[in-house]
Amino acid sequence: MSILIVGSTGTVGKEVLRALNEKASPSSKISVKLLTRNKDKASEVLKLYENLEGKIVEGDLNDLETVNIDELYENVERMFLLTISSPFQARSEHGFVNLAVKYCKHLQQIVRVSALGNSPERDINCLMRWHNDSERAVQRLVEHSKVKLTILRPNLFLQNFLTQDLQTIKSQGCFYRVKHDLGDGYHISHVDVRDIGDLSAVVLTENPEKHAGQSYNITGPDTFTYDQLAQVLTQAIGKEVKHVPISEDQFAENFKQVPSFVIWMLVKLYQMYKIEGITANICGDFKIVTGKNPRSALQFFVDHADQFK
């Protein structure tokens, strides 16, 4: 069995590889195939996992003419699909999955990473709308095929504190979020990406029929406001960290170096959080599927404490 990993060098993809590596052994390796635009980066990632037999196929999901389709789909039975959130996400995934369903003879399963709270009712420039459109596109393509589809819908990542907030936490002792206009702020059950990896590895290595047609909501075990998360982070690293609320325009200004669709994606995300309570929910899907308790925010910050100091 070979598992095609799309999105293997990012935050989530690396954790999927890590979890698959832990399920394998030197005498029972798991075969993976990585589609990547950066062959050198993918090679460095694969070196970390001795229990995986890896093959790298260079190419761009958004430019399928750059991909050797025969090489990519050869002997692939499972696919883990994670693409960059963008207004073009549904079109990219439709083109890619359409080819897979037609030409990947042994394909049995697609595991697609979506997002908790996606809906066709979201603003057209919100990532939750993009994920919904992409989900529907993939569902329609596999509907009358032998391929079994499983959707993963994780909540907001705790790892964002490392990728987005690390510098201000270290230099200013704070992190910034869009101000909430009502009540005591956002309530979000942030998820540790390691849990997404663990659940993905279970789904990708069990009988596809067991998870066919399922969607799994992946959350942390607690719901916190950002003030409360600042207190948890303070406890974990032994250094005071504060949450600083700012206006939407100030928040957008902090991201002025990125494409405009990314700025609007983030602004619309927090606008959705203001009116949508689904992201405060604590879901049991992770434990039902894996048999393990989800990692807590405190555990995440303790495990990464040295990086925040």
From TrEMBL:
Gene3D superfamilies: NAD(P)-binding Rossmann-like Domain (3.40.50.720), UDP-galactose 4-epimerase, domain 1 (3.90.25.10). Residues 3-275 form the NmrA-like domain. Pfam families: NmrA. InterPro entries: Ergot_Alk_Oxidoreductase, NAD(P)-bd_dom_sf, NmrA-like. SUPFAM superfamilies: NAD(P)-binding Rossmann-fold domains. PANTHER family: PRESTALK A DIFFERENTIATION PROTEIN A, PTHR43162. This is Predicted protein.
